[in-house]
Structure formats: structure tokens, C-alpha cells
Design goal:
Blueprint (H helix, E strand, L loop, with lengths): L7 E9 L3 H11 L5 E4 L9 H4 L4 E2 L7 H11 L6 H22 L6 E3 L2 E2 L12 E2 L5 H13 L5 E4 L2 E9 L14 E9 L5 E11 L20 H9 L3 E2 L4 E8 L12 H4 L3 E3 L19 H14 L5 E4 L8 H4 L1 H9 L9 E10 L2 E3 L11 E3 L4 E2 L12 H19 L25 H18 L6 H24 L4 H22 L12
Parallel strand pairs: 1-2, 1-10, 2-7, 10-17, 16-18
Antiparallel strand pairs: 3-6, 4-5, 8-9, 9-10, 11-16, 12-15, 13-14, 14-15
Helix pairs in contact: 1-5, 1-11, 3-4, 4-11, 6-14, 12-13, 12-14, 13-14
Amino acid sequence: MTKRVEEEIYSDLLVIGEGIAGGIAALEAARQGFEINIVAKSPGIEGSNTFWAQGGIVSFGQDDQPELLKEDILKAGDYVNSPEAVDLLVAEGKKAIDRILINELKIPFARSSPDKLDYALEGGHSRRRILHVADATGRTIATALYNRLKDFPNIHFYFDHTAVDLLTSPHHFLDPLAAYREPSCLGAYVLDNKSRRVKKFIAAYTILATGGCGAIFEFTSNPKTAIGSGYAMAQRAGARIVNMEYIQFHPTALYHREADNFLISESVRGEGARLKTRDGRTFMEKYSPLRDLAPRDEVTRAIYQEMINTNSNFVLLDLAGHTRVDIKKRFPYIYRTCLGYGIDITRQPIPVVPAAHFCCGGVLVDTCGRSSLPRLFAVGEVACTGLHGANRLASTSLLEGLVWGIIVARYLAEHFEPALSGYPGHIRSWRYPEQEEPIDPALIYQDWATIRSTMWNYAGIIRTAKRLERARADLEYLKHRVDKFYQEAPMDPQLVELRHGLQVALMITLAALANPESRGAHFRLD
């Protein structure tokens, strides 16, 4: 057995994830003097979904009203949203944007005049209310937030560190008397991707901010890192998980053999773009009175059906022939990216295909961000606040992360209690295999290919009992093999992520099987 020095790293708060939700929670908590460790599996902030968010963030437009926004959220979520969560977002959202994003981080949101913000329109919204920085809103916010966090000496970043499992009492305690204590979260086992050593990050409170799980599907708008690690770790630790069948598919990702997960923002349709078949016929009027501005689940299924009807791998999104905006100015990032693939969006339509985009379920939390496991909080996409119900309204995700990040930090400032004493040396060290079997990258590659194709074909946009049963059987068989592989192989971030992703795939499949009712993003053909 290889000898390794175990590291125990302590803090008041452990934040797992580097997006807007975890970053805002850390920012607000740092002002209270808490010592904070932030763990991120990527080398930098580009691993978060926040970084890649194009469209914008919901605020209030000039002719807007709170009740209008509330109704749009409820309608998109098929009225299974948590009323308390919706009310909280509507009440706190604009104040949070003004105080942190505009006044503190100085986010340069687009303006229609020097003293007037420009509001975009997106599908499902009854008013123009989306603040944006051209088509790179998330990248701008993530960068500004990271630069602000670096100003605090009590915030410590650990990039290239992959969370493996949550630390819990009594499960990971050596003391048998710990069995009489209430279960709680104590931090996490975290793999240093470079040294391959597992460290114990011990904290009074842990905040999961690990994002979503779009990358377990064959087509996704998410970065490849978005495999649902937070859902998997929380479930293994005993936290309650809900609504995992509600996986939102974004209608329009760029279809190109060399393009990798590039999203075409919903704002493009908000500025007039029309969806067409490959021979140039519009079709959304057949599926919704809102046509191209229908909610995402309706647009996604319409595209999927048209692809089947026309035996095509994609449809077309025509902006050039249906807008008055300056395309290069309004969508510079999309314009440059598409041009790199030989598509001039000022002159020709964009080939698009639906892609897994957002998980509306997750770790169930209350309006304070608390999970069912004491001392574990969850914010952002990994959490299920109930805000989104069965389907998310466009551009509410960044706002949800912002609002609940603030709420969690506020709660901890008012209710912080030090963790139980006696941690050093009392938590189990990580157990490494005595004889480590070398990892074959081809096996991991093939297992991921199996997971992604299974989820896309059997548990994707349109589901049936037979498809879901096939998915369950195939994934459960694969799980037996991967679990054995995981126990015998050396610690490796690719293997840790494979284990997480496979567990999440099963989570979604079982939730979809258990719910025969089509609601929002969950559509059962049978």
C-alpha cells in the first residue's frame, strides 16, 4: 500500500464550485470575517456554467411589474413551482442586481442610452426585462466576481481539486460514540488532481455550488465538467433529492461536426430570429400561438418533431432575415464563433439542434438554502429551491444563484455555530487500494459514450416507459462494473467524475420512470 501524508484543511465555510452562486455566497460571507475555502475541479473559473451563460439575467423592464414576472415564472414551470421561492426571487432579485452586480462589481450591462439600461426579450417572458452584456453576460460576471473575491485574504482558492465525497458524521468518524449524534456534514474528501492525493477539507458548514448535469447527455450546452457531481455526493450523504426528471433542453445549440457545446442564446429569437426547416419553411406556428417565443420545452419538442418529420439532424435558425438589430454589435461572441465555423449569421441561417441545458431539480433546500442534511447548504443549479417547478424561465438561473448566495451568507452570519470539537485525527483517512489496477482511458471514454447515448436516446427530450426501462437496465449493469473499477483503481479525477455522472444518470432515469405525468420539461409520450 502506497504511503501518503493525509492533509486536513480547516475553515468556517467550504464552498464547492466556482460559479455565481458559490462566489456570491463566499463574497457576502467573507465580509463577516469567515475563513472560506473554495474548491473547483477546473484549473480556473471557465469550468462553471456561469462563465458560459450568454443571454443575461432577469430584472424589471420599464413597463414591468412584479406580478407579471411571477406569472411568467409560474407559467413556464407549469405551476408546480414553490410559491415561496418565486415570491422571494421576485422581491429580492432587482435589489441584489443593483447592489452587487451594478454598484459593486460594475458589470457593464448594455444601455440604450447613457442613463438607460437596455432590456432584451426572451421566450416565455411577457416583457423585455433581460439585462445583458452583449452575448457574454456570464463570462463578464464570472470574471468580475473572481477578481473581487481575490481581494479578500480570508478566501482561499483550490483549483484543480475534485470533490469526491461529502464528509459526514457519524459515517466518517472513528469514534463509535459519534453514532449517537445527529447526522451532519463536516466538509468533503477532495482529490488534488495533480498529486492524486485525497485531502480532508473540514468545515463548520459546507455549501454545494457544483452546477448542473447537462454533460451526461450526448448533446449539451454545458461545459464537459457539468456532470452532476453535487447531486451524486449529496445523495450518497443522505440529503434529499427531488424533481430530477425535469431536465430542460435548450432548443438551439450550434450543429457542426467541429463545434463543442456552443449555445445559441434564446435572445437571438428574442430579437426576431425564426426557426425553419432545412428547406426554409417556418414551423413554430404549428406548435404554439407564441411561435418562436414559446417556452423552451415547447420549442425543443417542436424542433425534435420537425427533425423526425424531415429526417434531418438539425433545423435552421434565421436571424439575418428577421431582425433590425446590428447583429455584430448585439451578438458579437455568437457572430465570431459561428464565423469561425464558416457560418456568417448576418447572411445565412444557423444550423441548430436541441441540447441538455438545465436541471430544474436537485438537492432540496428551503428558502434559507438549507438541505435536509444539517450543516449542508446548496445554491445555484445543484439546488432545488422550487423556483423553476417543471421548467425554468429563461435567464432566471443567474438571478437564482445571486439571490440564494446572498441568502445563505446572511443566514450563516446570523446563525453560525462552530462545529463539534475533536475533529483532528478523528475522521477516517481515505482508503487507497492495496494493489492499484492501472486506468485504461479507453474504458472511461467508452463508458461515457454509453452513458451519454443512453441518456439522449432513452431518457432525453421525449420519454416512454420502454425507453426508460432500457436505460435503467443498461445503466445499472454499467454501475456494477464502474463501482468495481473505482474500488480497485488509483484515484483519478476522470474516474471520480465517471462515478458521479453514472449515479446522476440513474437518478434522472428513475425519477422519470416514477413520474408518468408530462409536465414542463418532462414529457412522456406514453
